[in-house]
Amino acid sequence: MVQMLDTREDGFAARFEELLGMKRESSTDVNDAVAKIIADVRARGDEVSSISRRNSISWDLREAGLAVTEADIAGALASVEEDTVEALKLAHERILAHHSRQLPASESYIDATGVELGQRWSAVSSAGLYVPGGTASYPSSVLMNAVPAKVAGVERLVMVVPSPRGELNPLVLVAAALAGVDEIYRVGGAQAIAALAFGTETIRPVSTIVGPGNAYVAAAKRQVFGQVGIDMVAGPSEVVVIADKENDPAWIASDLLAQAEHDAAAQSILITDDAGFAEDVVAAVETQLKTLPRAQTARASWDEFGAVILVGSLAEAPALSDRLAPEHLEIATENADALAEEIRHAGAIFVGRYTPEVIGDYVAGTNHVLPTARSARFASGLGVLDFMKRTSLLKLDAESLKKLGPAAMTLARAEGLDAHRRSVGIRLNLPD
Amino acid sequence: MVQMLDTREDGFAARFEELLGMKRESSTDVNDAVAKIIADVRARGDEVSSISRRNSISWDLREAGLAVTEADIAGALASVEEDTVEALKLAHERILAHHSRQLPASESYIDATGVELGQRWSAVSSAGLYVPGGTASYPSSVLMNAVPAKVAGVERLVMVVPSPRGELNPLVLVAAALAGVDEIYRVGGAQAIAALAFGTETIRPVSTIVGPGNAYVAAAKRQVFGQVGIDMVAGPSEVVVIADKENDPAWIASDLLAQAEHDAAAQSILITDDAGFAEDVVAAVETQLKTLPRAQTARASWDEFGAVILVGSLAEAPALSDRLAPEHLEIATENADALAEEIRHAGAIFVGRYTPEVIGDYVAGTNHVLPTARSARFASGLGVLDFMKRTSLLKLDAESLKKLGPAAMTLARAEGLDAHRRSVGIRLNLPD
């Protein structure tokens, strides 16, 4: 049974804190196991990948090789339905168009002192994209991770994906081809992350690794961080829906369930100012669960982590939502734009009754890789900048150095760094 | 004795690989100790900070309290030399001016389908700034870390700094006051990071933590990553200098030593096309070491990690430098601008003979917190964006949902996510 809170009831603050502090992920400590795998891959390369694959499958992948071929991709394309490919193409086109606007501008200017200052954005040379196997192997996620990399200008985009029974989701291959992925390897788990970070005989190392994965993959990304760049370590998905009573309860229920069906650890929260509407939504959730193929997962999520928060006024909603800092926030109210203006911490905001979060999962053009577990307080969704870095540039001449140098020398002395002081003084003919 | 390489000699590739692979930091494993400290701070708060401080100092800080007061800052200001304060003010002004140009623009637009897409940048609400104690307690670093936070719009900027004998570097306090730091606490080490991440009775938690520190601080930042945002974990400083024979060898030697005096694990590398010039620089380093107060540190760095790379032509230099992906790159050649254009991986580039790296350490306006240990391949220097996050916004109406919805439904079906499909279909009156 989903929990119901009311901001006007005694003990709301404590119950809300509890909701905020809820741990939705079992924190199995796989750090030691992962450290061992990484060391092993660094020492033995491809061999490790092969062995680990052989342990979990009957088909010997070493025969087929790690690399996915052009023929594999052609085969995949031939095997999938045309309307799905068309939908992927539309998604690709829209993601490409939106992310192209994220390209940062390099700049250079000369200030009043005659100093030339610049910042130059450039792409990482290579990036790795982890794609989970099994049920979480989503073609949409391939697009969401690969397109920003290609927009950034990454020359070598390498995808890794486990193929437990020698099989790959053909749509994942189609999406990779659409997005311009350059290399694909059949390898998963911590060993795939290690291979991307340090390289093996088959897989050359990359500069940055992105993409979701299980606890082993997450731990491996954390451990190789520094050797390579990584994106956020993503947790279970979540949505907050702020809704007034003018909504069709069934629409809102379907949105809550769309989140809940992802994962038993997903979280769906409704904030509303109408008790009757809240009850209607809860009833609609029950009705819809009856005909939902993934009802077991969705029910587990809804019963354990779902919540309905009743507020005296919807004006209270933005502050509550900011505390939750949700990955996804839907605002289905009369004054949705005004409420959206007040939000400070959310991965993505879906404004108005005709903007279900699902549209952002697939075809809107915005990215669906978003900060989870309250990290929207400090983190952003995946974007073009995650595949770029900024180099600063400075250029002084004798004149401008004469103007700025003495202050630098004063600070160097104050910090006790005499070679610093000398490096400027020697150019200005100033004694040590 | 500094090592000399020549791209034309046999075995250069192997020696260069060795240079690239050089481990300059002893990797003491402090992870378990740090995990214990973090757990302890979470359980006992301020008490832990007090105890740990009492273990290393004789003066009981609990009497004075953790917080630095207005009076402490006024006292600091009165105790420092006026020309140093003036230099800090100049540095502050210039850093502020340059970083103000980094503020990203939020945007919103309606595309041809009628979909409103937006991205809204906003500051993190609060940030923590770690400042090391002892010799590495640099006022310039306080400015470099604090100014971008304030430019971003961070409302609550909290500085932590250990005060081993109850003392603080007064210039650090002056810099903090100049930069607009809101709270300062006398606490250091992993417990300071834990306090910033999880909060104690005295210190409210923050959203993002930046700033350099020792192995404990670095490990703590890594462990709290996810709970809060963190900047890069910085390693020892480094410089690559590309120089032709037209330079005064003493100038280049002073630049190499300015880097080397930071830390015995710092690294200074000269790339030049003239063997005689290389010898002159090496001789000038020896001469300058004789009169350098921090000669012991600088010599250790130069002898163990320094290198001179002779190239047949300076045209080879950019590719070599890109492999090293240095934190700092000086280009002191005739065609410095053209060479700078070819560089892809560097934290900062200092162009021309009158741009010693030191000018960027203090007063140029660019940030001196830059990616080390080859991480310039994927990471940027500290900037305003490190204290901001991007929220994406979407708004559809009935018409635009009708256009995009069917493709989303197709993809949801392909991914086996029926509640996703329903969430769109229910709004379009399309059956499941």
UniProtKB/TrEMBL annotation, chains A, B:
NAD(+) binds at residues 130, 191, 214. This is Histidinol dehydrogenase. GO terms for cellular component: cytosol. GO terms for biological process: L-histidine biosynthetic process. Pathway: Amino-acid biosynthesis; L-histidine biosynthesis; L-histidine from 5-phospho-alpha-D-ribose 1-diphosphate: step 9/9. Belongs to the histidinol dehydrogenase family. Substrate binds at residues 237, 259, 262, 328, 361, 415, 420. Gene3D superfamilies: 1.20.5.1300, Nitrogenase molybdenum iron protein domain (3.40.50.1980). It catalyses: L-histidinol + 2 NAD(+) + H2O = L-histidine + 2 NADH + 3 H(+). GO terms for molecular function: histidinol dehydrogenase activity; NAD binding; zinc ion binding. Catalyzes the sequential NAD-dependent oxidations of L-histidinol to L-histidinaldehyde and then to L-histidine. The keyword Nuclease does not apply. Keywords: Amino-acid biosynthesis, Histidine biosynthesis, Metal-binding, NAD, Oxidoreductase, Zinc. Binds 1 zinc ion per subunit. Its cofactor is Zn(2+). Zn(2+) binds at residues 259, 262, 361, 420. It comes from the Bacteria. The active site is at residues 327-328. Its EC number is 1.1.1.23. PANTHER family: HISTIDINE BIOSYNTHESIS TRIFUNCTIONAL PROTEIN (PTHR21256:SF2), HISTIDINOL DEHYDROGENASE HDH (PTHR21256).
